[in-house]
Every structure is written in structure tokens, then in C-alpha cells.
């Protein structure tokens, strides 16, 4: 696959700084692996602080002109980029499956989803309106201008190698910002291919820069630079907190999408089929490796047995394998550390009384494949309920009343995705309002879309991405007072 992709010109291994593809200054590289086979795909440039400083300078230089062209012009560039992403959907999806492991069909879905943020940004670029405020004095006029924040540092994870980048870069560029992107070292190839397409779209040199390598060093260079006015990050809560603290020195604007601990609450009055289908989608997508994956499945006692049996049947049918194989719906986990974490959480849960009723071990395919798993008799004190599982494990917790469900669901420091299944309109409103979460799916397990705001409360993050609200993250508000008229 790699050599095929190479001939399409989208297999890039260098960093992109100021419109030029370049090696690390000291020539260092890092390997990118296929998690499905453990084989090395290719080596990419391993960059650090010096390259980051140059990327920031390039972005700063480009900012002057990019922020001054018209919104309509920026919109056209973004539209072109979107068209190219869609035209290269298959190659991008192949790269993604190769480095990330998700089934090809899911990768194709992510290209659609990822590209949609660029399309939306192209449209929204033209709608960044200011305001005129009725003045309290007759000889004054008060105006509100919206202006780009400046150079943006975007740090992204491996679970959505394209969408986590476009969700940040689309609105940033639409608003007139320029960006320095640091994708995950585990999945840089999709990011580099998308960057190559941004060049082909004619987006001027320096507007989009990409580098990867020594993450803390790149992160520190972004944090230290007074020219970087905004940090936008998706990843672990621990790294997010470091970036927030590190932004204090230069008082940067910060957006964070951090870890979740999504409750999926199935009430007695739920439609069983809808609840099972929704739970499957919310839990097993991307092998359970998303921050909005159902982490705790809370099931009311009246429907518990029936739901557990129906879920078991459905999970048994999940076909595990290499993402390029026909019919596979669950690929490998990203790396050995991810499997070890799942094993530790299962071990902790079973040692405290939980029962594995399906799976619960590494898959016979080897490497980092893990069996689709269902665990019963879980409680909210076990590590599996306190930490993000990030694997194909469905832990079931039994509850009695609506109040219990809300209390258990909110008993966490996280607050990103949540799901409820009920056929009562009143209950759905009551519970949706009571959940301390940024997103609530009612009778629906997949709710992310570019047109709706995505983001968390409590320690799940700051700010929102996607939708018209996501644009504000890249804008400053300026008040202009015209006096003595
Ligand atoms: P995950 O568990 O999803 O890998 P991480 O928070 O470790 O979450 O990684 C998300 C992104 O943050 C990756 O691009 C990673 O390289 C980057 N990263 C990790 N540590 C740092 C750091 N100290 N400074 C800046 N970025 C970092």
C-alpha cells in the first residue's frame, strides 16, 4: 500500500515549514508503524525546538497577508482544499488505515467527516459579522469588530488523524489565522498528506505548517513564543493541563478537548433495539478509542438482563481484523501500551467482583488486537469506571432510579460525551439538563457533526469546536468607539 501511495504524491515524510518540505535539521527520523502488523511503514522527520521556531516565524510572516485578504478569498482556498480532500478520499483513507488501524470503511467515513470541517469553514468564513451597539451618547457610535487571534499552535492525537486537525485548522484559516500543526507521531502521514493537498489548493506558503518529532520540545517552543497567540489541543487531560499552565506565561487563548468518561444510560422504558444499536456505535467505534466512547453503560434494573443478553449477541458478531480486510469492523488498538491499559483495567474490575461475560483478553490475531468485551457487575468505584478505557470493552453498571443514574453519571471529573436511551420525552429533557456534560445523545450513539458544537465541561476541556460557536475560538473582539461626531 505504501508504495502505491507514494506514486500518488501524498506519502510525505518531511515537515512542512514556510511552504517547503524539509528534513529535521539534524537529520533525525522516527518510524511510523502499522498497528495491525507491527511493521514499520516509513520514517518521518523527527523535529524539535529549532524547527518549531522557524515554523512559527513562517506562520507569523504569512499571517500579515492571509489575515488581510478578503473572507471570500479565504473561503475559495478552503473550498478548493475541501474538493481536493474529497477527490483523494481513497488515498487518504488508505493512509489512515495503514498508520492508525481503523477499518477502511471507518477511515473513508473520517475523510468525509474531516473534510466537512473545511467545507463548513469555507462557508462560515463569509459570515464573521461584527456588531453596532446603540451608543449611550448621541455623539458616539460603538462598533464591534471580530479579528483573527493570530498564529495558532494546533496539537492533535492519533485517534482521528484527519478530523482532529481539520476541526481546528478549518475555522482558524477561515478567521484569518495561520497555523503550526503538530500531529501525533503515531499518525503523521494523514496529516502530511492533508497538508500537501492544502498546497495544491493554492493556500499560500506559511499559512499551514506541520512538524512532528519531540512532542515536549515542540510544545514548549509553541508555548514560549509570544507570537503564538492561541493553543488548540485535543488529547489526554494530563498533557492538556500542562499546555494550559504553559500558556499562562504569554497569556495565550486556549482551547482543549480532553478525556471523557461518557455514561450511556439505558432506562427501563428504552426501545431495546435502539439502545443496543446506539450503545454499540457509541462504544465500539474506532475499537473504543474515542474521547466520546461510552465508558460506563448504566442500565436500569428492569431491562438489565434483556439488554445485557442483546448486547452480548451483537458484540459477538463484531468482526475483528486488519482494517484492509473485507467486512472487518474492529481493527487493532493503537499500540502495546493501549492493550496493557485495557488489561490492567479488566484485571482491577474482576478482582473487585466484576464478571467478564464475553472476551476479556487479547485476540488470537496477536499484535495489539483485543477481543470485543462485555463486563457485568461493574460499579462506579472500579478503575474501569474512573479512567478512560479507550478499548473495545463495554462495562455494565446496574442502577435503580433516574436520580441514581444521574448521580452516578455525574460522579466523575470528566464531562464530554453522554448518551441516554428512553422513550419518555419528559425523562429525556430532565436527564439531558441534569447531566454535567458538553454533549448529550438522546436515543442516538453517534452525534458528532461539523454543524454542531463539540466540547466538554469540567476537566474535559475548554471551548467548543465545529459549528458557528467553533469560529469564536479563533477570533478576538475589538471595540471601536467613534466619538465627537
Ligand atoms: P493520547 O493519549 O491521545 O496519545 P496525548 O496527550 O499523549 O494523548 O497526545 C496528544 C498529542 O499531544 C500528541 O500529538 C502528542 O505528541 C502531544 N504531546 C504529548 N506530550 C506533549 C507535550 N509535553 N507538549 C506538547 N504536546 C505533547
TrEMBL record:
Subcellular locations according to the entry: Mitochondrion matrix
GO cellular component: mitochondrial matrix
InterPro entries per the UniProt record, alphabetical: Ald_DH/histidinol_DH, Ald_DH_C, Ald_DH_CS_CYS, Ald_DH_CS_GLU, Ald_DH_N, Aldehyde_DH_dom, Aldehyde_DH_Superfamily, Succ_semiAld_DH
Molecular function in Gene Ontology: succinate-semialdehyde dehydrogenase (NAD+) activity
EC number: 1.2.1.24
Superkingdom of the source species: Eukaryota
Primary location group: mitochondrion
Keywords linked to the UniProt accession: Mitochondrion, NAD, Oxidoreductase
Catalytic activity: succinate semialdehyde + NAD(+) + H2O = succinate + NADH + 2 H(+)
Pathway(s) this gene product operates in, as recorded in its UniProt entry: Amino-acid degradation; 4-aminobutanoate degradation
Biological process terms in GO annotation: gamma-aminobutyric acid catabolic process
Domain Aldehyde dehydrogenase: 21-480
Active-site residues annotated for this sequence: 257
Description of how the protein assembles with itself and partners: Homotetramer.
Family to which the UniProt record says this protein belongs: Belongs to the aldehyde dehydrogenase family.
Matching NCBIfam families: SSADH
Name of the molecule in the record: Succinate-semialdehyde dehydrogenase
Naturally occurring in which organism (per UniProt): Canavalia gladiata (Sword bean)
